[in-house]
């Protein structure tokens, strides 16, 4: 007959019941929408059209996300022409939710009428140029653009490539050459930099607000060498944090060099009737002055057909 100590020893050596925790499915976690049916069965070939049935709710965003993932695997970019800017904003948010791995960009509109006597806001021009630069480098998987925005002509890729340059810490810099290069790129020389497209030179300090940048930059020179590059707040003018280099995009979407002004004068005489010398706009741009000229009017200086930004047809 077993004693109490023997029973205790037997209970101590008895195997404990094994409790297994549920193991999560890593495949579904990596792609939670893999189980959903494909709304875009196949991508059309170049020059072919694919017509999809009506999609309700956010199904259109899911279909575009699936198409974007398929195009991303082929090292291509998906361009979506939306009905308006609100639809583009909605699709951008929903596509990013369905496919977080995709880089989604919106090409914004100028938000001006064709013959307005004022130019678009500099922040909009800055965002447009930054998006075009990302497209030229293949950094966008899905680009959304409103139909009205897609109607306007864009500057050729060669214009953006020719007027984009970088400044790095430790680089030797010719201030006079930089001032001329910035003026050719469309930057305005001001006493205090507060908005994109402006620069200021004060002795050994150069303030720049590049297009496409979230903050302006301050270059501290030691002789002819860039000793430091720091961002600063445009309101308080106080420096924030250091940077190693700065990218400078052109300040406008069209050239205002001699070739661009000559092309503008020729197109102006073709489109508008009357004596062009009586137009203030015509005389200002002919003299290289941008005051009083709107971007929508000056876009006619780049109307010759060049290489397109979009080299492949979008999925419709």
In a nutshell, what does this entry contain?
This protein is of the alpha/beta class and 316 residues long. It contains 11 helices and 11 strands. It has 3 domains: 57-158, Rossmann fold, CATH 3.40.50; 165-248, Penicillin-binding protein 1b fold, CATH 3.30.2060; 258-302, no CATH class.
Please give a structural write-up.
The protein has 316 residues and is α/β, with parallel strands linked by helices. The protein folds into three domains: 102 residues, Rossmann fold, CATH 3.40.50; 84 residues, Penicillin-binding protein 1b fold (2-Layer Sandwich); 45 residues, no CATH class. The protein is built from eleven helices and eleven strands. It has a six-stranded mixed sheet with strand order 5-6-7-8-9-10, with helices on one face. Strands 1-3-2 form a three-stranded parallel sheet. Strand 2, helix 5 and strand 3 form a beta-alpha-beta unit. The longest helix is centred in the N-terminal third of the chain and has 15 residues. It is globular, with a radius of gyration of 29 Å. The N and C termini lie far apart (85 Å).
> What order do the helices and strands follow?
HHHEHEHEHHEHEEEEEEEHHH
The overall pLDDT average reads: 79
Q: Give the CATH topology of the largest domain.
A: Rossmann fold
Write down how many β-strands occur, each being a DSSP E stretch of 2 or more residues.
11
CATH architecture label name of the largest domain? 3-Layer(aba) Sandwich
**Biggest sheet, open or closed, and with what strands and sense?**
6 strands, mixed
Span of the ends, CA to CA = 85 Å
Strand-residue proportion: 15-25%
Q: How would you write the strand order of the largest sheet? A: 5-6-7-8-9-10
Number of helices: 11
CATH class of the largest domain: Alpha Beta
Q: Indicate the low-confidence ranges by residue numbers.
A: 1-14, 16-29, 300-316
